[in-house]
Specification:
This protein has about 375 residues and is an alpha+beta fold. It contains nine helices and twelve strands. The strands form two sheets. An eight-stranded mixed β-sheet has the order 1-2-10-7-12-5-4-3. Strands 6-11-8-9 form a four-stranded antiparallel β-sheet. Helix 3 packs across helix 4 and helix 4 packs across helix 8.
C-alpha cells in the first residue's frame, strides 16, 4: 500500500516528555476497554446493529475497523498526495513547487489551513467563538522547521475524486441514516494532515455552538463527523475524546483547571489502523496534541447533521458565512451527497449504491461529470455549521 512520505523532524515535549508518554499509554488502555470498536454490522433489514448504536450513544464515538479496502486507501493516498503536490509552496504563495497555479488559487472559499509547527493557534483565544478555552502544550520547534505547515484542506471533495467517492460509501451513508434519519444533511469535508514532528495541536473543544438551548436538545443535536483513516492514528498523532461528554455543554476550562493540566484524566485517543473509520459526535469534548511522533496522520473527514437541527437555524459563522439555513440552502449543499454516490457507482459498478432518500426521485439529474465538477467549485461556501 503506497503511503505519503514526509520529511522527518524530531521533536519531544522536553521536561514533560515522560508525563506525556505515560498519559498516552494510559489513554490507550482506557480506549480499548470501552467496547466501542469493531466492524460495521447491519441487521438483515439493513438497519445498523443496535449494540453499535448503544455504544455510540453512550460514549459519543465509535471506531469501525477494516471498512475501507487497501486498494481504495491507495487511491485516497494518491488523491491526497496530488493535493499536497498542488498546494502553495508556502503559506500565501500563488504557485506550487512546480511553478503551477496553486491548489485553490482559483477559488473564493477558505480551503487551506496552515499552522506554525507544533503550535496551538486557537487555544485560549476568542477564535471560533471562543470554543477552545484552554491552550495546549507547545513543544519546542525543531531546527530548520518551516515557518508554517499545511494542516487542513477544506472543501476537499472538489479537489479529489477519491475523497468524493469515499464520502459516498454505502455503509458509511447507512450509518449516517441510522443516526441522523433518512433526510440527513452534510456538514463539511476536510482532509487533516498531521505531519510527523511538526503537526500542530487542536485545543479541547465541543464542535456544536448554537443548539445547546433548544427545547428538544439531545445527545445528537449537533451531528457527528466521519473520519476515514489513511495512515492509522495513535495517541501521539490522533484525536482524543472525552467519553460521555456529548450529553451537555461542558466547562472545559474548569475540567482542565481541576487537574492543573490539559491532560484530561478520562479522555481516550482514537486508535486506528489504515482503513478504519471512526465516527465522533460533534458535542463531545475532543482535541489533539502536537504531533511530536515520527508517524504522520492523514484523515479524510466528512460530517452529517439531522435536517431538523439545520432547517431554520442560523449558522455559527465558523465554516461558512453566517446565514439562516432554509430548505433551498440545504438542498443545494446536499447535492454533494448525490454526486458522491454517482461518482462511486461509476468507479465501483459492482457495489450496491446507497439510496439517499431526499434525492431518490432525482438520481438521473445528478450524474458525476464535467458539468458536476464545474458546479462543485466553491461548494463549501454553503457548508452547514451549527
Amino acid at each position: 500500500m503506497a503511503a505519503i512520505e514526509f520529511d522527518s523532524a524530531q521533536a519531544d515535549y522536553g521536561l514533560q516528555e515522560d508525563l506525556m508518554q505515560a498519559y498516552f499509554a494510559e489513554g490507550a488502555q482506557r480506549a480499548l476497554s470501552l467496547g466501542n470498536r469493531g466492524p460495521i454490522r447491519f441487521n438483515t433489514d439493513g438497519s445498523l446493529d443496535q449494540n453499535i448504536l448503544d455504544a455510540y450513544w453512550e460514549t459519543g464515538f465509535y471506531t469501525f475497523t477494516g471498512v475501507i479496502s487497501a486498494p481504495e486507501i491507495e487511491e485516497l493516498n494518491a488523491g491526497v498526495a496530488d493535493m499536497l503536490a498542488r498546494a502553495p509552496v508556502k503559506k500565501d504563495a500563488a504557485l506550487d513547487a512546480q511553478g503551477r497555479p496553486a491548489l485553490s488559487s482559483d477559488r473564493t472559499a477558505f480551503n487551506l489551513g496552515w499552522v506554525k509547527p507544533l503550535t496551538d493557534p486557537v487555544g485560549g483565544t476568542d477564535q471560533n467563538g471562543g470554543r477552545h478555552p484552554v491552550k495546549m502544550i507547545e513543544p519546542e520547534v525543531p531546527e530548520n522547521a518551516p515557518e508554517h505547515v499545511l494542516q487542513l484542506i477544506l472543501g476537499s471533495l472538489q479537489f479529489s475524486d477519491a475523497c468524493l467517492r469515499v464520502s459516498g460509501h454505502p455503509q458509511l451513508l447507512a450509518v449516517a441514516q441510522a443516526i441522523n434519519g433518512e433526510d440527513f444533511t452534510p456538514f463539511n469535508e476536510v482532509v487533516w494532515i498531521k505531519r510527523p514532528g511538526l503537526g500542530g495541536s487542536v485545543s479541547w473543544h465541543q464542535d456544536g455552538t448554537t443548539q445547546w438551548a433548544r427545547p428538544d436538545f439531545d445527545r445528537g443535536t449537533h451531528g457527528y463527523n466521519t473520519m476515514v483513516q489513511l495512515t492509522g492514528c495513535t495517541p501521539a498523532n490522533g484525536l482524543w475524546v472525552l467519553p460521555g461528554s456529548h450529553v451537555k455543554q461542558q466547562d472545559i476550562k474548569a475540567l482542565c483547571d481541576a487537574v492543573g493540566s490539559e491532560r484530561l484524566p478520562d479522555a481516550v485517543p482514537l486508535l486506528c489502523e489504515p482503513g478504519d473509520v471512526a465516527i465522533c459526535n460533534r458535542q463531545t469534548v475532543h482535541g489533539s496534541f502536537a504531533n511530536t511522533s515520527p508517524n504522520p496522520r492523514i484523515t479524510v473527514n466528512f460530517g452529517f447533521h439531522r435536517r431538523s437541527s439545520i432547517l431554520g437555524s442560523t449558522g455559527n459563522g465558523i465554516h461558512s458565512a453566517k446565514a439562516v439555513y432554509d430548505a433551498e440552502r440545504i438542498f443545494e449543499r446536499s447535492k454533494m451527497i448525490a454526486w458522491a454516490i454517482d461518482a462511486r457507482k461509476q468507479h465501483f459498478p459492482d457495489e450496491q449504491a446507497f439510496e439517499y432518500k431526499p434525492f431518490s426521485q432525482m438520481r438521473d439529474q445528478y450524474r458525476f461529470d464535467d458539468r458536476a465538477r464545474e458546479a462543485m467549485k466553491d461548494y463549501n461556501l454553503r457548508d452547514l455549521g451549527i
